[in-house]
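ESCALATION

Customer reports they have been waiting on this structure for their group meeting. Please prioritize. Original submission:
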Amino acid sequence: MSERVQRTNKQSNKPKITVIGGGTGVSTVLSELKKVADVTAIVSTMDSGGSSGRLRDENGILPPGDILKCIAELLPEDEQSVKWRDYLNYRFRKGKGLEGHSLGNLLLAAAYDWEGGTSYGIEAVSWLLNIQGRVLPVTLNDVQLIAKLSDGSDIEGETKIDLRQDDLHRKIEYIYLSRRAQLFKPAHEAILKADKIIIGPGSLFTSILPNFLVEGLPEALAETQATKIYICNLVTDPAETDGYKASDFIQKINEYGADGELVDYMLINNGPINEVARRMYETERKYPVEADLDICKQMVRREVLTGAYCKGKTILRHDSQQLAQTILSLH
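Update from on-call: job pushed to the front of the queue and completed.
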């Protein structure tokens, strides 16, 4: 066994927390949990746009973008690591072939090639940067996300689904994958060994639910003895969840999970939202998620919890400290 794997698997007295999702939402949760828990991020691998999409199409690799966000968030807080975070997130503004790429995405693409595969590349970069936790792809299968809309048409590609702006009256009925995908074995093990499983936050149909389409993940969630916690989004998204209340979010989580399986807890923001930010988001048809608690309580096994989980004056994000405190208190 390599030194890297030995370091990754060393025992810890901290609670084992596995976070499932993708993109900015999950990385926000990791920023505080890494300080108090032994964390593993299981990340969606269906991204199809931007730098990640280009590297995927041109090099035949799994998109590195969401993996990178989690690696960057799990860096230590020392001065050297903070500088590394800046470099990893640096995006080239010019240069034929370079423009639009982030340095971190290129580093991961190089590591995938040099180390002989996606999982080995992630492990190597994680070891080099001494991250506080593990980052695992949900699957190693190269698949595209497809959304079936209310008019019967399909949209293929995570980015096309997430960023669509036309004909938004066509609602997403359900999502599926271009072909079968199997759960990455270490991700399965992380779910079974976890003390707590965190689902979300993040774009419902393009970051969270795609993980549930991977064969083996719903079954692993049903099998694990871990406490399962769903973190509801702060605002709706016109392309995915326009008009959704909190109960609509948790209903979809239950729908894509194993039959009859419910999460134990649901966390919903009921704290204040900066008025300037609220107005800015409304211009994009994004609105605070209504907390219809009575209905939500019927859809979870134990309890629906509310709190002041929102922060930000222009860009709204979950308050990672408040989330971490609540998560640690749940059993």
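Sent to customer with the following note: The CA atoms of residues 46 and 157 lie 8 Å apart.
Escalation resolved.
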